[in-house]
Each structure stands twice: as C-alpha cells, then as structure tokens.
Amino acid sequence: MQECHFILLGATGDLAMRKIFPALFRASQAGLKPSICACAKSPLSTPEFLDKLNTRAQEYIKSLDPSAWEDFSANISYTPLDLTRLEDFKALQATHPNTIIYFSIAPEFFAKACQNLAAVGLNTPNIKIVLEKPLGTDLKSCQEICQEIGQHFKEEQIYRIDHYLGKQSVHNLFYLRHNNPFLAGLLGANYLDHVQVSVLETLGVESRGGFYDPMGALRDMLQNHMLQILALSTIPANIPIERTRQAKLEILKSLKPLSRAALKSQVVRGQYIAGGGLKGYTEEEQVNHNSQTETFVALKLELDHPSWQGVPFYLRTGKRMGISLVQVVFVFKGPPQALVYTIQPQCSLELQLQGMGALKSTLDSGMDAYERLILEVVAGNQAPFNHQDELEAAWSFVDPILQSWHENLTPLLPYTVGSFGPQAAFDLLHQDNREWFAHV
Ligand code: BG6
Q: Pairing between strand 99-103 and 267-273?
C-alpha cells in the first residue's frame, strides 16, 4: 500500500466530483492509500460534504461497492477554504513525505493559491502540485501564471495535467510507430497525403456553461488535447520514451504560424443551434444569449519539420456532433488507402486496403485517464504531463487565431445539433479535393 496525502482545491466542483474522487477511489482499490483533505469555499462540515460526495459517487462510479467506498471515505476530511484568504490556508497540513496539492480550480486563482500556499510554508520539496488545464487563456496569461507559480514551486514539483495524456489509447500513439518500424516508414511525408485529427462529442456544454462560455472549443480542446494528439502522432519514431516531452515540444514549436490569408481561408468556427429537441448553445444554462463563443473549430495546418514537409493536417473538434469519436486518420498517397487509429469510444487500429476492405484490430483502452495520472504524480513521473514550454508553443500557434476572431476576420457559422459542423468545415477539405473520413 502506497500512502500519500492529497489536498484537493475545488473539491465541490464538477471535475472533482465527476472525475477526481472516482479516480482516487479506483486508485485506492488498486493499492493507493490516500488521506484526502477536500477544500472549497462552501462552509460545510465533513459529514455534510461527505453526504454530497456520496450522492455523486453513486452516479459516477459504476457498480460501487458500499463497504469499499466507506473505507475510502473514512479518510476524507473537509476544510472550508477561500483561495484569496491567507488565513484559511493556515488550517492545511502538508507534513506527509508524499503530499499532493491538486488545483481543480479556475486558472485565474492559480497564482493567488500558490502565493498563499507558499506564505504558510506549503511549498517544501515533499509537495507536488497538479494544475488542471487550461493554463491561461492566451500566451501572455499562461506566461504570467507560470512565472508566478515558478516563484514558489520548482519545475520538478509541478504537474500540468492534460487528461488525454493519461488515456492508454492516446499513449499508444507513441508505441504505434515506435514499436513498429515498418509503420514508422509508412507514416511520414514520403507516403502520406495528409493526416486528419477529429475530436467529436455528442455532449453539449451540460452544466458547464459558466466555464465554457469564456473559453470556447479552440481553448478548451484544440490548444491542449488536439495539439498533444498531433504531437504524439508525429514525433520521431526512434526516440526513447523519456524524451517524449522534448520531442513533442519540437513538434509544437514547428507548427507553422497561419498567415493572414490562411486565418481567413483555413480556419472555420461554428456554434450549435437547436435541433432534434435539443437546445442551441445560446439557450444553455449560464451562457450569454448573444454569445459569440465557438463550440466547433476546424482548421488546416502544417509543420515546419524535416519529416513532415508538405503534409497538411486537418483538425476538427465540436460539441453536439452527430457522433462521439476521437480519431487520427493517416491518409496515404496511394494504396493502402488509410490507417485509422481510433482513440474513443473504443480504441482500434484499422488498415484500409485497396480492393480488400479493411483489417481491423480492437485494442484495450486501459485504465481511466485520471486514475493513471494520479498514480503517476504519486510515483513522481512527470513524463505524461506538460512542460511549460509545450503550453507556450501551443498558445503561440493559437493566439493569432483568437486575435483574428476578435477582429471578426471569419464569421461564426451556425450548425445544427447532431450534424458534423458547418458546411465550411467540409469545404475546407473539398477545396483541396479531400474528404473528412467520418462524415454523413
Ligand atoms: C475536457 C473539456 O478537457 O475534455 C471538455 O474541458 C470535454 O469540454 C472533455 O468534454 C472531453 O474529455 P473526454 O475524456 O470525455 O474525451
């Protein structure tokens, strides 16, 4: 049994209830023994907090074993904490040799929380901090937050989460080419016509309108999850696993900035409107009725990288799409037609052969992403977490797009719930005589 002390900031929030507590519970069943100090602003007692948590646990943990849950929750206490009040931080204890402070809070509170933690001495080397994405809302805010955090915590104490990096199916992208040299040869500029990355969700913004509306699909999905998938799909095949962060950084730095003309013709933004009995985005709870926030984005980009010269990448992500699907499609110049790597809902690899249909293999999706990442933090392995430089490189690519939207260079296009985004997203490929792999 490995012991650790876990301080969870933002413990009453949606992410904590839906993902982090269930992951900690599963990790405890796999042998971790966490004592958990749950913190949030609400003035609750521990029994009151546990009441709330128990209800949500029934909802989010499949076939929950009541006695295992009781053992787990016996190690949870609740401390009311206002992130801006230094006084409140004095109640926290972090003497355990393996203490983890998880920031499941809005990024605008990261810097203040770090200052307060440091002011009460909670930045000693036994402490690791876990920061949820998105880190900032653009390059400047990301740098400011990172600089502030860096004044109080050393790089080896900081774990910047992108939960897609905890998915076995995403991690396998590394092994796809690394362990299969014949594929590594095929999946490069010599044979590939282009690559597609799709992250499609049937879900809307659910109860997260307050978080999502200032964010949008570009910041919420593309800047992080999608660029990480792209990076893992394109890093050189022969590098050792411990060098993946550096290799991903090289790819992210090689993203060719979009020219003004490309910003206009190669980027599509959309917003869902009511359909099939479901609300449109601007009718969702906590969303501004005149919101100009995009719930869909599609774009074409290239890498300025010796191995990927001339290979276009098409990325698209959207909420309230016709299907839920996370997929990378390597489309060849000639037969075989395509190698399709599906990350979700079921991890699989499919090779489409000319005149022979497809060879498909279903792969194990493995343990839950948050559980895996929590165990990696406990073990002190930073490899599946982002380095600050990766985030900055990703923001550097995304910033001009945000700016162009701010200037209304491209219109915000409506698409109906249950579709695959605005027509312009199809035209983006049609203009190059190409087609999205999954479409209606
Ligand atoms: C989160 C986004 O990072 O990822 C959500 O904030 C999105 O908007 C979610 O729904 C998707 O994650 P998954 O694991 O369900 O594909």
A: unpaired
Q: Is the full-model pTM beyond 0.70? A: yes
Predicted pLDDT at 440: 47
Please say whether the beta carbons of 346 and 362 come within 8 A.
yes
Among 132, 150, 173, the domain-final residue is 132
Is 15 annotated to bind ligand? no
Both 116 and 215 in one domain: the answer is no
Name the residue of 169, 219, 220 whose CB sits within 8 Å of the most ligand 1 atoms, as the mutation to test its pocket: 220
Does residue 396 fall inside a structural domain?
A: no
* pLDDT computed for residue 439 by the predictor: 58
Ligand 1 atom index nearest CA of 344 = 16
The closest of 222, 225, 284 to 417, measured between CA atoms, is: 284
Nearest residue to 174 via CA among 250, 253, 231: 231
Domain interval for residue 34:
2-132
CA-369 nearest atom, ligand 1: 14
Apex 138 CA angle, 135 and 139, nearest 5:
90
Q: Which of 108, 132, 156 is the last residue of a domain?
A: 132
Residue located via tokens 């958990």: 36
Ligand 1 pocket, residues with Cβ under 6 angstroms: 201, 203, 220, 344
SS3 per-residue string spanning 123-168: CCCCEEEEECCCCCCCHHHHHHHHHHHHHHCCHHHEEECCHHHHCH
The answer to whether residue 400 is domain-embedded is: no
Atom 5 of ligand 1, nearest CA residue: 220
Residues in the chain with pLDDT values less than 70: 365, 439-440
What confidence tens digit (pLDDT) does each residue in 138-180 have?
999 999 999 999 999 999 999 999 999 999 999 999 888 888 8
C-alpha distances (whole Å) from 38 to each of 3, 12, 94 are 17, 8, 13
